[in-house]
Design goal:
mainly alpha, about 220 residues, Tetracycline Repressor, domain 2, DNA-binding, homodimer
DNA sequence: TTTTTAATAATAGTATTACTATCTTTTATT
DNA sequence: AATAAAAGATAGTAATACTATTATTAAAAA
């Protein structure tokens, strides 16, 4: 994790872990706009100043949470694809991992991965859709996302070494896996899965999109 | 335009048109987060209360601007494709219109379409990525966006009547046309066009993506 | 032309947000 | 037992996101 994202490492203390845990819960419950350090402090049972000792502001905290998420996705993808030889099958697995609901990993007791997944779907892009994106990028805050895109880009090139847009196709897969999910649940007429609300259909849509491009 | 989006129709008065014009300028310059009704009022030379007579809040104003944009895009697409018979050529035109910089239409002197395009790229998704999306949707605030998707979906079906995901492919084209542009200019290593910063490459990427799916 | 009305301008005020500062108490380390 | 670091308690400020009221001006109806 990038040290510049926090003032004090939240992984290093109980209070820090509570900040992460309750942030995820509160953002998931009320949305990022309604989320404040005051409410977070009340929820935890500490003070606003206590939170500010860990994170400079809400935006940094969001980026931290997003970075945590992308690191975790990358780890999961590597773990679950490293024994698959066929790059097409590997890419298929990647699509499935990105587009389907995740089960809470009990090892990381301070992070509910399922809530986290929901947060990133609805709030993740707000981490970079800002005027400070250039500054934030200089601090390498988006490295986990970029690493993931590079990983997926490599698989794409294994499928078809002549394909010209491996990174853009990666971001398309990632962003669309999330956006189609958001639309399906919130603006169903913006997808073809509004009636069934079945994540598997998003997977099939993305597979079709990706594999016809790579043929 | 949906009446429920405003308290007083901004198209009906000089002040109203100034609100739209200066909103677009200010959001484009400082981003949505830094944009406030107070600053907008100062910029126009009116008072905060004056703005509140037109729009309930900043979020409604954003949705209004986005709705204006999607209506305008739809109009443009219809105008520029209605004499093209071949649906593939029509879809090609749609992709080009969505993914390339727009020239300011002097007829709408109170809206700089080029700035507007930039705003929608960076801030457009914030109109729906909220907890109130369901409520906002009940008020039909996203109808222009949906109509555009339906229009593009119809062209897709003309290209291939058996294609199963015309709406999801439409949102993919629209959102990726914008997102690849944002990445190209702000997080270039998340695209394959970072070096050239050439919008035409985004068009080629999207054409490749879409037409290989429809074959 | 006067009257009514509608829109705008001017001003004030409130609760909440996004912080910063300081001081004390608790907990962990030497 | 002494020291340092983290956390808790409290206070304060500028800005934000509104609401309310009253006065002024301009346009429309009588």
């Amino acid at each position: 994790m990038n040290d510049a994202l926090f003032l004090r490492n939240p992984e290093d203390s109980e209070l820090g872990k509570k900040i992460i845990k309750h942030s995820i819960q509160l953002i998931s419950k009320n949305g990022l706009e309604a989320f404040t350090f005051k409410k977070l402090a009340e929820d935890i049972g500490t003070t606003e100043a206590g939170i500010y000792r860990y994170f400079e502001n809400k935006h940094r905290l969001l980026i931290y949470i997003a970075a945590w998420y992308w690191n975790w996705v990358e780890y999961r993808i590597n773990f679950q694809t490293n024994n698959i030889k066929d790059p097409f099958k590997r890419l298929q697995k990647v699509i499935k991992l990105l587009a389907t609901t995740v089960v809470d990993d009990k090892k990381t007791f301070h992070v509910d991965e399922n809530l986290l997944h929901q947060i990133i779907i609805a709030e993740g892009s707000k981490a970079y859709l800002t005027k400070q994106v250039g500054e934030d990028n200089k601090h390498h805050f988006f490295k986990p996302y970029k690493d993931l895109c590079a990983t997926i880009g490599d698989i794409i090139l294994e499928c078809n070494p002549k394909y010209k847009y491996p990174i853009s196709l990666s971001t398309t897969i990632i962003e669309m896996a999330h956006l189609q999910n958001f639309f399906m649940n919130n603006l169903p007429s913006l997808t073809d899965f509004g009636n069934s609300k079945d994540e598997k259909k998003i997977v099939v849509f993305l597979e079709n999109l990706v594999f016809s491009s790579l043929k």
